[in-house]
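To whoever is on call:

I kicked off a structure prediction for a single chain this morning and the downstream step that reads the tokens threw a length-mismatch warning. I double-checked the sequence; it's 305 residues and nothing unusual in it as far as I can see. Pasting both halves so you can look.
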Amino acid sequence: MKGVFYSGFGGSEVLQYGDLPEPKLSQNSVIVRMKAATVNPADIALQAGFGESFMETWFPVVPGWDLAGIVERVGAGVVEFQPGDEVIAYTHQHILHNGTYAELVSVPVERLWRKPKNVSWAEAAGLPLAGLTAYRAVIETLRVSEADTVLVLGASGGVGSLATQLAVLSGATVIGSASAQHHTYVRSLEAEPMLSNDVAELRRHTSTDVTAIVDCAGHGRLAKAMAADPNARVCSIADSGPGITTVFARHDTEILARLVDLVDAGALRVTVAASFALADAALAQDVLKARTCGPGRLVLVPGFT
């Protein structure tokens, strides 16, 4: 099979596209033919060696943690899925080795769920990691409700756009920080767009204090927001420090099922900024790092031209 891999830490230049051995099928796993896989900042960070102190690495490494695809084979102990089923998965493992930038992926059955029915493969692939992260931030960590005014930093990004929608669905008043060219998109999520996060700008957008802040941007923006509203509940997917709860994606099939239901109901949407051929994974990573893409996710698609 074809796949993308690296044999040493580094930037996009270490990525290679070529032949890889097909994954093995264990009793409780499923082989999925990947139709779409997303490119995430975590892929780039781990590829650069960021996780070396806390994750075992077995080279060559295939990057990627989430995908959408079709079940090709099931293990002897799997009764939940059959060949031909359309599925999504968040495949994060504690060993950096087998990822989703490949035509075939072996996935433990407990990490699979049914693909949302009426969305593209690319949109479906963008849901697992970003959706699980956004849900943990908005619903589980901050427990956002209709009583809240929520500021989402990075509201046009992959996680930020889903966090914005979940906050809106919770009944909150939502302000979304994004670059000027993405303000129309933020409005389409039923949030009030904001260019910066200093005190004056915040006060122009709300007559009440911000009660919760979801940082999906990093790059020091959270410090200004916390200074503007020091009593707000705060979580971040990109920063840490006093008063900040750092949030990471965590597999939870029940939550993934809820997210799929919201997508199927038309209440939650995943935006795809651009799709790239699997062979162009290095280019996709460069675009993600340069922040030159539109709002939403970057997706790899085998055979895409």
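Update from on-call: the warning came from a stale cache, not from the record. Cleared it. Sanity check on the structure: The longest helix spans residues 128-141.
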